[in-house]
Amino acid sequence: MNASAASSSIDPAEAEHFGKLAADWWDPKGSSAMLHRMNPARLGYIRDAVNAHWSFDETDRRPLTGKTALDIGCGAGLLAEPLARLGASVTGIDAAGENVAAARAHAAQSGLEIDYREGGIEAADRSYDLVTCLEVIEHVAEPEVFAQGLAGVLADGGLLILSTPNRTALSRLAMITIGEGAGFIPKGTHEWQKFLTPDELVALLEGAGLKVTEISGLSFSPARGFEIGTDTKLDYFVTAQRASEAG
Q1: What is the mean pLDDT of residues 172-192?
Q2: What's the mean pLDDT in 86-108?
Q3: Are 92 and 116 in contact (CB under 8 A)?
Q4: pTM over 0.85
Q5: Structural domain includes residue 130
Q6: Is residue 247 domain-resident?
Q7: Where are the beta strands (DSSP E) in the chain?
Q8: Which residue, 48, 106, 178, 199, is most buried by CB atoms nearer than 10 A?
Q9: In what order do the strands lie in the sheet with 115-118?
Q10: How many angstroms from the chain centroid is the CA of residue 225?
Q11: CATH code, 97
């Protein structure tokens, strides 16, 4: 895939929207508060997925030492920083320059070396052992092109972890009617029609030469918060690897 094709996956309006949120991205009570609430469940899922894929010791505090990781659509670094603390050599890419600037500043304050870049998937100029893409594909201009880009930067033996909202009545109610309507999520963040069902996402990834190896739901409980399980009606995770390598 050439760079001009890859760059078409960027939606300028989406980049502008998220760039405006950069200043308080790290504020757990700010405009990205929902991401902060989701992060413990997301990080738990990622740790379990990498443990299973590479047979890591679950007690190892830096299991990704020696591995390269790409977080595409990294925002201001809410996932990139934990990946770096797990030992990975991390590259974070985001379409909004404001987010990249905020990510660089926060990483410097945290004493972390992370290679942050502005752009789309074409800004990745190498392959990576771990590719993460959380709550991003529903914001790109051309999901099929984007899926091909993800496959193109996944190293041999690597693991792709992706999450996205499902296109259901529940996601419309929770994320747009209530979430954006009540101000829990910044207005204009989501377009329900752009949400992908698991079947649609699997088809995109398979069309790009990948094999989905696991699907899990991300649901919300008022008592327990966000949790990983079998319910995919709100949001879900997939893991994938090269189809030629899947057992």
Answers
A1: 78
A2: 95
A3: yes
A4: yes
A5: yes
A6: no
A7: 68-72, 89-94, 115-118, 128-134, 154-165, 210-221, 225-229, 235-242
A8: 106
A9: 115-118, 89-94, 68-72, 128-134, 154-165, 235-242, 210-221, 225-229
A10: 19
A11: 3.40.50.150
